[in-house]
Amino acid sequence: MNDRAFAGILSRRQELAELGVFLLLVVPPLVFSFVAAGRAAVSFPLLAGATIARDAGLVALILLLLSRARQPLAAIGWVGRAVGREVALGVALTAPVLVGAQALDAALRAAGLSGPGPSSAALLPPPGTGELILAVVLVAVVAVAEETIFRGYLILRFASVLRSRGWAVLLSSMIFSVGHGYEGGAGLLTVGATGLALAAVYLWRRSLVAPTVTHFLLDLVAIVVPLLLR
């Protein structure tokens, strides 16, 4: 994947303006979720609906920006080659990423970093068939949207603007982690590390399919599986 080949249609000034507008849209809600950690919880259906709407809107914006720049979906990693193999890889990577994330989270908490705040309970849906279906839809939408946003679009644009793929990966992972402020200090660092792992898979495979499958299964384990075990 040649970042400059995809980004060459836009001038540097256009890239900076586009990136600035996108960050203006995405960062404030993420910061709000960080500040709101520990405050009164909202209902799961309301939270799920708002999250789905927000993520769908951001993906639509990315598609619009790509269209304006005459860039294909392949520019952000949505390619159709060897989909079955990429899905299988995403499934296979889930267990090691999950075990690594849990080990890191435990180590960080043992070192004194905070865990999830009281409002994090709102992220787990109440029992019920309707809530279970909504939770699965939420997990699927979030996985596709967040990989499109943080691994696909932001890495592409940051790499082009900063002339550094390493910084692009680091910054996109940091922004990704900010939206998980409700998980406390340990959660922030763990999510950031998970973002780095997903970015490494994306750059390795030059496709968002495997990281999206892994992301979906990680969230499924965190949100849906506890529901089934109640």
From TrEMBL:
Species of origin: Dactylosporangium roseum
Pfam families: Rce1-like
Domain of life: Bacteria
GO molecular function, one term: metallopeptidase activity
Transmembrane spans: 21-40, 46-66, 87-112, 132-154, 212-229
Domain CAAX prenyl protease 2/Lysostaphin resistance protein A-like, residue spans: 131-221
Name of the protein in question: CPBP family intramembrane metalloprotease
Keywords assigned: Hydrolase, Membrane, Metalloprotease, Protease, Transmembrane, Transmembrane helix
